[in-house]
Amino acid sequence: MTKEIFREDSYAKSCTATVTAVNERGGILLDQTIFYPTGGGQPGDSGMIETASGQSIAIATTVYDRDSGDIVHVPQSADNLPAAGETVTLSLDWPRRYAHMRIHSALHLLSAVLDYPVTGGSIGEGTGRLDFDIPEAGLDKAAITDELNRLVEEDHPLSMRWITDEELDARPELVKTMSVQPPRGSGRVRLIEIADCDLQPCGGTHVARTGEIGKLVVTKIEKKGGKNRRVRIQFA
Description:
Blueprint: E1 3-4, H1 5-8, E2 14-22, E3 28-30, E4 32-33, E5 47-51, E6 56-64, E7 71-75, E8 87-92, H2 94-113, E9 118-123, E10 127-133, H3 141-153, E11 158-164, H4 165-169, E12 188-194, E13 198-201, E14 216-223, E15 228-235
Parallel strand pairs: 1-4
Antiparallel strand pairs: 2-3, 2-8, 5-6, 5-8, 6-7, 9-10, 10-15, 11-12, 12-13, 14-15
Helix pairs in contact: 2-3
């Protein structure tokens, strides 16, 4: 399995790796990576892979292989792909990734401000949204915006730790998402904590402090069914 550097260090922008395979669709598999694969509402990373000979390979996105679970780096072109055993250098499209990190952390704050079960969500470079299971309407965009920005300005630190599957089973209140459960099977689950604000399972990439998120605005609150409310945010 690919070593997931991004799990421990969201700020790693480059690394070296060894090509373990190129699959039948031209996807590049590596022994380790800084590229986050699509999942949990967060898009897969893009960037560049450079071979020892100086060949640059643009990576359009990164995904999980459905069968093996390996991380696949999807090139923009099928030309000049590396061979298994080659040493390569990875470089993220950092501005895009960092925008994802900021929005992802902002959505965790939103789930703390609106303490309701989450039914869905998505992350973009400057926008994001969460869907909530809320019996009654009446959400106030301005009030939610003010509370989000208060938490951003307080500059709360974010941290990561692991717990066992059994520990998570004993604390079901940590899981806010109704439709998507944390991945199990490895024996442990990753938690993201925003000090004094939020604690929940998450495999995505995040900023180190809420102050890095920057000013936010709630742009729209939509009714999506009898009890579902979609709240959209973006950088102000």
